Amino acid sequence: MTKAVNTYTVTYKRDEAGWWVASVQGVPGCHTQGRSLAETRRHIREALGLFVSHADRAELVDEVKLPTAVRDRVKRYLAVRQRAEEEQAHALALATETVQSLRKELQLSVRDAGEVLGLSFQRVQQLSSDP
Fold it and tell me: Do 96 and 125 belong together in one domain?
């Protein structure tokens, strides 16, 4: 029988000296600090281990506190990046479909298909063999 994994929200804030300070919500006194977020994440799990026996299996949800203007900029960036990834996936699907059409329907060589699409012949070959 497996035990349920507990979830803890960890709040990260920068202090005046540039250190990241982390606190586990709902676990009074459980906090730590580090020079980087990665270091602080490692430390907070160690600190949580002093308070609960299952810290190594606990799910930690990060809540990084940033100034409002910076937080808004991060949100905009993440939204744009998500759209870019979706467009990139769409472009790949369309490139694969187009390469296969050029190769099968028009019997173009990989080099000619690459010339038409502005791709290297190696990339055309890869796209030709994709299912």
Answer: yes
Please write the tens of the pLDDT for every residue from 29-53.
999 999 999 999 999 999 999 999 8
pLDDT in tens, 61-96: 999 999 999 999 999 999 999 999 999 999 999 999
Position 77 in a domain: no
d(CA 50, CA 32): 12
Q: Is the pTM of this model over 0.85?
A: no
Q: Which two tokens stand for residue 117?
A: 């699409």
| Beta strands, E only, 7-92 | 7-14, 20-24, 31-34, 59-64
Our measurement of the distance from residue 99's CA atom to the centroid of its chain's CA atoms, rounded to an integer in Å, reads 30
